[in-house]
Each structure stands twice: as C-alpha cells, then as structure tokens.
Design brief:
Helix content: 25-40%
Structural class: alpha/beta
Number of helices: 17
Radius of gyration: 25 Å
Distance between the termini: 61 Å
Amino acid sequence: MLTEHDRQEILARGISPEEIDAQIEIFKKGIPPVKLLRPCTAGDGITIIEEAEQQRLIEIYRQAMAAGRAMKFVPASGAATRMFQLLLEVSAAFPSLEGANLRAEAEKGNEQVRAFLRFFAALAKFPFFEDLKEHLRARGRRIKRLLEEENYREILAVLLEPGGMNYANTPKALIKFHQYEDGARTPFEEHLMEAAGYTRDRNGVARIHFTVSFSPDHETEELACLESLRERYEQREGVKYELTFSSQKPSTDTIAVDLQNYPVREHDGRLHFRPGGHGALLENLNDLQGDIIFIKNIDNVVPDRLKPPTYHYKMVLGGCLVELQRQVFEYLRLLEAGNVDDALIARIAGFAARQLSIEMPAAVASGSREERAAFLFSRLNRPLRVCGMVANKGEPGGGPFWVEQPGRGASRQLVEASQIDAADPRQRKILESSTHFSPVDLVCGVRDYRGNPFDLRQFRDPHSGFISRKSKNGWTVKALELPGLWNGSMAYWNTVFVEVPIITFNPVKAVFDLLRPEHQPA
C-alpha cells in the first residue's frame, strides 16, 4: 500500500510508517464511541466551592503564582473565517447583493439574509468599524454613502478580502473584539491583560504561550504586530511578558483515506495529509515543560469591566489544583519510601476516592499491601487538571460526564457529542440530561512529585479521536482527528470539575457575538 517514496515522505514529516499503518487500521476498524454512565452534576462529579473557601484557595494560589509557577496556554491557531461564515455564504448565494433582493428574501423568512442585513444595520457597533471607515476613506469612499446605497459588496470586499482588512483570513487573535476610549483591542491584547492579572510572579514576569498559524506571506508582519503589542502592554501594565509561540507540528498531521480505506493522493502522487485537530496541540503543551498551566481559548475574552470575576475564579481553580497537588505529592513520597502500613494505605485510598474519584478494583483491594500501594502510586502519579464547569444554557461546548473506561471503571471526562453513539437512545438521553458544559477553562499541573515534567503523551487515550468525512477535489475522503486536547488527550489525567459562573464564559464564535452586551462598551 505504501511505496518507498511514501515512506520517505512520511519520515520527512516526523511520522513513523508504523503510525500511518496504525491510523489506517483505525479507519478500517472505526473508533468505539464513548460510553456515558451519567452526567456529572453538582455534588456528583462537580464540586461547589463556597465563598469563604474560595478566598482561602486564592491565597494558596497567590503563593504559587508569586513563585513563578504559573503560565497561560492559548490555542490561537485558527483564522477568523468561521467567524464571518454567514456573511461569506450570503455573498456567495446572492452575488449581486442588491438591497431590494435581499429585503425580499428576508421578508420570505430567510434567516441567513435577515442576519446579514442586521450586520450592516449594526455595523457602527462593531469594534473594527473605525478601521473599516479608514480603509474605505483611503480608497476615496465614504461608508455612510455606501450604506445608503446598500453597496454591501464593496464594504465586504474591504472588510474580508486580501487588499483590504482581509479579516476572513486573519488570525482570530488579531481581530478587534472590544472598543475602549483609547481604541479597540484584539483577543491577543486581552489575553496579555489576563496573563498580567493572574500569572504575574513576584518579579513582575507574566508567562503566556500562543499556538499560532501564520500566513507564510505575512508571518514577519504578524510577528512584528504581536511584538509591538507586547511592548505596549508591558509599559502600560508594568509587567514583563515571557511571550512564546509555536505552530502545530507536521508530525501531528493525519493521513486521509478514501471510502475503501486506501490512502488519498495529491495530483502529483504525494500522500494527502490533513491537520489532526486541536488534539495535535498536546505536543505543543508537552514541549513547554511548564508547571501550572492555564488553558483558555483565544476567543473567550471580556472587556476590562468584566475581568475581575475571571481573575477571581482562575485563582480559585489554581488554588484548588495547588492544594490537591500538595496532598498527592505527600502521599506519593510516603508510598515511594515503602514503609506504609494498612492504615496509611486506607487513608490514601480514601483521599483518592473522595477527591479524585479513583476507585480501587476489588481484586486489588483484596490483594497484598504491596499491590494496593503500587496501584495507588500509579494512579496518583499523573498529570492533574482542575476544570471550570458552567451551568448549561445551550451554549456549544463539551460536557462533563461519568464515563466507563475499560479496565478502569468510572472516570470523569469531558465529552463531545461527536464521541457518543448517536443511534443509542440511552446515550442520547444521558447527553441531553447534562446540567453543565465545559467552557475550556482548565488549569493543569504537569509536573510530578519530584518536580519533573510528565510526558503528557503517555496519558492520552489513542482510541478516542473521531473520523469525519471531507471533500477533496469533488471526492469524499475520510479524515482522522486526534484525541481532543481536553478530551481524549487528557483521558488518563486525574481530573476535578469545579462549578464557575457563566460570566466567565463569553466566547466569540460568530461576528454577531460581538454585539452581545458582554462585548459592548458599558
């Protein structure tokens, strides 16, 4: 199936031929769906932390922050194309974009066209409006006149296309999200502000890492833009940013196959690879070799007036993690020393069950003291994550569930709808009964009790990705996405879910989300 030339191409990407064989085998056998047992709810998998306890945890976290243990990891690889998808789709469906025709379609009940017209009616409320005006003015055009003439095509060309602002192809990190008296800010700037708010150490250093996907034609320009922003906010906030970037590795791309599971090829005969999804970023996270790492998506940011709750709950989650780590590390050192009696093993087992939902199998519980100690050591000596959960208000996002892991019993996991068997009514019912969802608000402990970085790749479930169907030159191909970064890639981490308020979750998935009160000036 693979030629010698194929093997050389695969090796040049940093992938082993054996890994490609394994991927093709996954296509053939399929990926077994996740088996949901029940949703995690308040008191059953989700911890509620009272206000007085929150303050204590914040103080615990502040000590770790001052010591320079904390940093932010922001997945920011994507362009803003999806953010403007509706505008692009209507433009393609109605090439002339004549106002009369669009109004007629809206009156017929075409919701896409109605939203398209709402965009232009509210154009002045978007934080990129002033930039748009300037770009049009440079062309000798006035936006007020273009709107009166319903010349939507020209406005969109300047906003979205190369030669203008090119927002449809710009990294979402550089789209203007929030308007302030002194100008508009991008998500990149808002994340810099956040990093100063809850990762700054006693020396004034705040650490933040972005995964990026720069355009080859504009990489130098984009890096220069980010560097200038860093310098501006260092001066403004009196902070020194330790700012780093990385891109998704070619070694995390996955091979595409046809419907008969044979590798798909390009016109020149080369194998066709596709990006492995956000699960590929496990490699980037692993390379950081950090200590306490907060993970938050690029588009989940708020203006300054709403940042205090974000900082508060980030530090609560951080304090929860640090406190758990302290106890876990103490027990691991005792277990490593070897002089433990049955009473101590029972105490450690009780902690593992209460705090981390680690249940000792009956066969191990009835075994020797050494077997019980070895089990507890292996299950405690893992990366730890504390995840914020918000009440389910219909927003998109993975949900927290008790999941059956073969040979491991019940486990708390973040699960996407695409991971379950949608044809099973019982599984659908469990999915639909979820009371919370994940806003991707994680703090991760990625060092062991000796202070050494874990190899995070050893704690993922390689069988928990998913297979999708894509179009390639008019043909249907199958694509494999790697286990999601906070789903299967963290399947074998120790996990705690904590309820946080909905105000901490304000994503911008579509451009219309910028019109929500949370993203508008007060």
